[in-house]
């Protein structure tokens, strides 16, 4: 009877709740006093089933007087940026206008989103949704364009926020609302763009951590603190005009309550905060978590990488447990079959970028991104610098709409991810044993490489950039080769059920459940 009850319960949940959940992004921001090494960090899990995964370096450029910059809606959709600025958008984007170009633009990384420039300004995004009336308004500036332009023009996070705000105020927002986290090694800003020309940004305290998971969260604002608060001039007056806020109510103006009211908690926010500060004892059903918190201990990049790939392991929502996870505890199967909580780390992540900025180093040396394709829990991170001379070819190779390619970085990570799912509970041990020591070595090596390059930079800038460029290129190439070997090993060991040459060897609990289903739900008379 125990087995019968468990199976019936799981089948009921599966059949009733089968369906999809919007696969959108999670971001984290960490202040310099919350990091163990004094850097600042922003992240972006780019969760998408359609994203153009290719990675480009957009070069720094000087522009003649009178130059104009194209504004293209959907400009990051499998468009070739290999010969920038001679870019043919074809039918992949929509040219909606032009704005004056600045005399000089900076070098930056461009992928599904653009995320870090040579000056050490970095950002990520998490799509959110405000009032329907705001979503229906259509301006010229979408989330891709706004990040591109900010990274082309900003030397600091504060400048980037101001640039983005000015663009939205002048040209209007296009598309869904967005949360954008921005840093420069000193400051961290959290921006919310609601639609139309409405936005607000707050500077985060240096000892705090922010988590964004597709829900706007800026509520309590000291509008007198102009040093740490920026916003559109009509942020309050527009709400009053629309009858959404009564200034005579005695209630403070809270942007989220007015423009994107929340009615339920967000479990990803809860999980991240619970990992960062278990001492605070957050409840997962709370509607409003703090905008940011102080972590119980100072963080490392490894800590942030681990949180970014989390699937609730060890909690009551553990996706490696239960019938939905299959016989081998596959958290991705458990999530995608429906009826389970949406984790931070999902199988359709395009890439994770962890931008880490060290303000005490020259910008070109201190502006570093840890980059990796695919589901974070079954992927790796390698260090890249926007100033590096070139990227390995595998970053620009392939398409998710074409055949599998062993010379494509995204396809290689997808290969390992899917091979691990053949027998997840065993394969994830092999993967971590292979990956984690290598990542630890690189984590320990990168600061030394940066220190050496910074010393050389004092007398020879080109030689210093060559040091980090060669290290990043060679490390990325080595990872690609090693990850292919890992995928081949996992395929040979698990994909064809050749563990001990004895078939699938399902766990007893799973075999008992299947036996019960066959005996009680068989269609044969």
TrEMBL record:
Keywords recorded for this protein, A-Z: Dipeptidase, Hydrolase, Protease
Top EC group: hydrolase
Example GO molecular function: cysteine-type exopeptidase activity
EC numbers on record: 3.4.-.-
Alphabetical GO biological process terms: proteolysis
Catalytic activity: an L-aminoacyl-L-amino acid + H2O = 2 an L-alpha-amino acid
Family, as annotated: Belongs to the peptidase C69 family.
Name of the molecule in the record: Dipeptidase
Protein's organism: Mesotoga infera
């Amino acid at each position: 009877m125990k087995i019968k009850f468990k199976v019936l319960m799981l089948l009921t949940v599966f059949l009733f709740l089968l369906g999809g959940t919007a696969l959108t992004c999670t971001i984290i921001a960490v202040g310099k006093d919350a990091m163990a090494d004094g850097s600042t960090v922003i992240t972006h899990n780019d969760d998408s089933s359609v994203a153009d995964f290719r990675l480009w370096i957009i070069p720094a450029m000087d522009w003649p007087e009178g130059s104009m910059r194209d504004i293209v809606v959907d400009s990051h959709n499998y468009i070739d940026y290999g010969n920038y600025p001679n870019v043919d958008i074809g039918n992949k984007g929509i040219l909606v206008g032009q704005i004056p170009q600045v005399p000089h633009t900076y070098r930056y990384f461009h992928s599904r989103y653009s995320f870090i420039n040579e000056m050490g300004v970095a950002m990520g995004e998490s799509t959110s949704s405000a009032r329907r009336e705001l979503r229906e308004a259509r301006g010229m500036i979408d989330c891709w364009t706004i990040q591109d332009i900010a990274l082309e023009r900003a030397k600091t996070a504060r400048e980037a926020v101001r640039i983005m705000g000015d663009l939205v105020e002048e040209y209007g927002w296009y598309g869904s609302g967005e949360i954008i986290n921005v840093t420069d090694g000193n400051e961290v800003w959290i921006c919310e763009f609601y639609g139309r020309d409405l936005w607000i940004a707050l500077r985060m305290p240096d000892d705090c951590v922010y988590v964004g998971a597709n829900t706007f969260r800026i509520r309590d604002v000291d509008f007198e603190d102009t040093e740490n608060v920026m916003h559109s001039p009509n942020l309050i007056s527009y709400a009053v005009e629309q009858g959404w806020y009564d200034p005579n109510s005695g209630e403070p103006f809270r942007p989220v309550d007015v423009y994107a009211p929340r009615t339920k908690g967000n479990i990803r926010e809860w999980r991240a905060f619970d990992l960062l500060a278990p001492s605070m004892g957050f409840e997962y059903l709370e509607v409003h978590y703090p905008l940011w918190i102080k972590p119980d201990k100072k963080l490392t990049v490894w800590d942030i990488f681990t949180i970014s790939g989390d699937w609730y392991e060890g909690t009551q929502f553990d996706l490696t447990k239960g019938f939905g996870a299959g016989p081998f505890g596959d958290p991705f199967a458990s999530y995608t079959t429906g009826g389970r909580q949406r984790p931070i780390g999902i199988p359709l992540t395009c890439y994770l970028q962890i931008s880490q900025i060290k303000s005490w180093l020259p910008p070109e040396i201190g502006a570093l991104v840890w980059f990796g394709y695919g589901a974070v829990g079954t992927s790796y991170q390698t260090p890249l610098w926007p100033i590096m001379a070139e990227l390995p070819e595998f970053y620009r190779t392939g398409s998710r709409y074409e055949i599998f390619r062993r010379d494509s970085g995204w396809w290689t990570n997808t290969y390992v991810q899917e091979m691990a799912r053949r027998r997840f509970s065993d394969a994830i041990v092999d993967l971590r044993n292979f990956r984690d020591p290598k990542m630890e070595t690189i984590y320990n090596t990168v600061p030394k490489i940066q220190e050496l390059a910074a010393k050389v930079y004092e007398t020879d800038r080109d030689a210093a950039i060559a040091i980090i460029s060669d290290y990043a290129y060679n490390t990325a190439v080595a990872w690609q080769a090693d990850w292919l070997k890992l995928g081949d090993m996992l395929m040979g060991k698990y994909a064809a059920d050749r563990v001990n040459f004895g078939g699938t060897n399902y766990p007893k609990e799973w075999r008992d459940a299947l036996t019960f289903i066959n005996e009680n739900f068989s269609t044969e008379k």
